Amino acid sequence: MTNSVSTASNRTPAGRSGETVSKIVEIIKAQILDGRLAPGQRLISTDLILELGVSRGPLREAFRQLDAERLIDVEPNRGAIVRRLDAIEVKDLYEIRIALEGYAARLAAEKINEGNNRAHLTQVLEKGRRHRTNPVFAHFIADNREFHQMIVQIGGNAELGKLIDKYQQPVFMIQLRQIIGTDQVMTHALDEHEKIAEGILSGSPEAAYLAMQTHLHHSSQLILSSPALSKNKQSQKIK
Known about the structure:
The chain has helices at about 15-35, 45-50, 55-70, 85-110, 115-130, 135-155, 160-165, 170-180, 180-200, 205-225, 225-239, and strands at about 40-45, 70-75, 80. The chain is mostly helical.
């Protein structure tokens, strides 16, 4: 894996400053999401300036936005590094996700029979099932996010959706893949998605909440119990 964003098709000619910054953020965020940029990987400013066709000012602002979204860390004298979560951060952020996404699942169960909500959830659930026979992790990441986002959409609370997106950053999925392996991630997630959908489709807010709580608790425990996270924790103490 290279130390910078390496894709000629993503070259971004400098235009209006706001548009340029947004484009840089979009490109780097997408590459964190699909795994081309891994936790702990340094983003080389000089390389990015050349590859994206931008100036240093918009790139610096893009780094600030990505730092605010907890996707990268901007460190003095070291530059920007793709964020690597420690055990305490994983625990704290998953507790927040359980509260927010559990509530979203409740709302979805209450509104499942409104409009086309039932059909939309069923369609997203079925789409994810393809990974049981043809697992492709990059596609699974997108399908997983779509499933969780559909639940928020059905609930109809836009502000809740913004909060959930903040704490549901793709760093979790990238780190999870590196720690426990793609097959285990997908198998656990798909089984638990079925339980969540069952609670929502049955119109039971409590069943939907408990299934979501179980799903996110299992995800956090898989990360927290991993040797890779323990090794990262020890290396941080040494520093």
